[in-house]
Amino acid sequence: MAVRHRLIKCSPEDVWAVLADGTRYAEWVVGTAVSRPVRGQWPQVDSAIGFEVRLGPARLANQTVVRRCDEGAALELEAHAGFLGTARIAVELRPWGEHCLVIVDEHPLQGAGGVLHNVGVEALIQLRHRAMLARLAKVCENSAGPEPHLRRRTAPQTSGPRGPGGGRA
After folding, report:
1. Weakest-pLDDT range from 129-133, 142-146, 156-160
2. Rounded CA gap, 43 and 32, in Å?
3. 25: part of which helix (H) or strand (E)?
4. Cβ of 18: how many Cβ atoms within 10 Å?
5. Is residue 43 reached through a cis peptide bond, with omega within 30 degrees of 0 on the bond before it?
6. CB contact set of 160 (below 8 Å; sequence gap of 6+)
7. 117 or 166: whose pLDDT is higher?
8. How many other C-beta atoms lie within 10 A of the C-beta of residue 79?
9. What are the residues whose beta carbons fall under 8 Å from the beta carbon of 8, sequence distance 6 or more?
10. Are 132 and 32 in contact (CB under 8 A)?
11. How far apart are CA 25 and CA 105, in angstroms?
C-alpha cells in the first residue's frame, strides 16, 4: 500500500475546504486535467466527480466516487481508471498544532491495477503522491493566505494628546 504524508501549513478546515470542492481536484491531483461534479452533492457518500486525464492527444474520462466521508477529518474515494480498474484512495486530516497533517493511503481494488501491482508500481505511486501532496499544500496554503506570523502588521497606534490638526500637542 502506498501511504504518504505531508504537513500542510494551514488548518485542517482550510485543507478540507479544498477537498470538499469537487471542481478543484484538477488543481492538485497529479495527472488530472479537468474535474467536475457529476452526481450528488460532493463530498457526500456516493456522490461523484468526473475527471479527465490527458496523455498527449489521448483523453481518458472517468469518475471518482465518495465511499466514506467524515467531514473535516477523512475522505475515502474509489477512483475508476477504465481498463486499469479501480483504486481506493483514503485522505486523512489530523490537526498538528496550528497546521494539518495529511495522510494519503492508496491501493488497487479491482482490475488490471490490482493484478499488475508490484514494488515498481508502488514506487511510482509514491512519487505521484509526493507530487500530489506538494500541489495540495500549495493550493491550500495559497487559499488560506499567509500564516498569522507572516501577515503584514499594521503600524502601531501612538497614544497621547493630539493637537487640532491631528499632530501631537
Report:
1. 156-160
2. 18
3. helix 25-28
4. 19
5. yes
6. 168
7. 117
8. 22
9. 15, 99, 100, 101, 102, 133, 136, 137, 140, 141
10. no
11. 17
Rounded Cα distance between 1 and 122, Å, is: 7
Average pLDDT of the chain to the nearest whole number: 83
Q: What is the DSSP letter of 72?
A: T
Q: Is the pLDDT of residue 123 over 80?
A: no
Question: Which pLDDT does position 73 carry in this prediction?
Answer: 98
Whether residue 157 contacts residue 54, with contact meaning beta carbons closer than 8 Å, is answered with no
| Full-model pTM | 0.78
Q: What is the pLDDT of residue 150?
A: 43
**What is the helix, strand, coil percentage profile of the chain, to 5?**
30, 40, 30
Rounded CA gap, 61 and 54, in Å? 9
111 contacts: CB under 8 Å, gap ≥ 6 = 81, 83, 84, 85, 86
- pLDDT tens figures, 32-85: 888 999 999 999 999 999 998 887 888 888 999 999 999 999 999 999 988 778
Contact criterion met (CB below 8 Å) for 49 and 56:
no
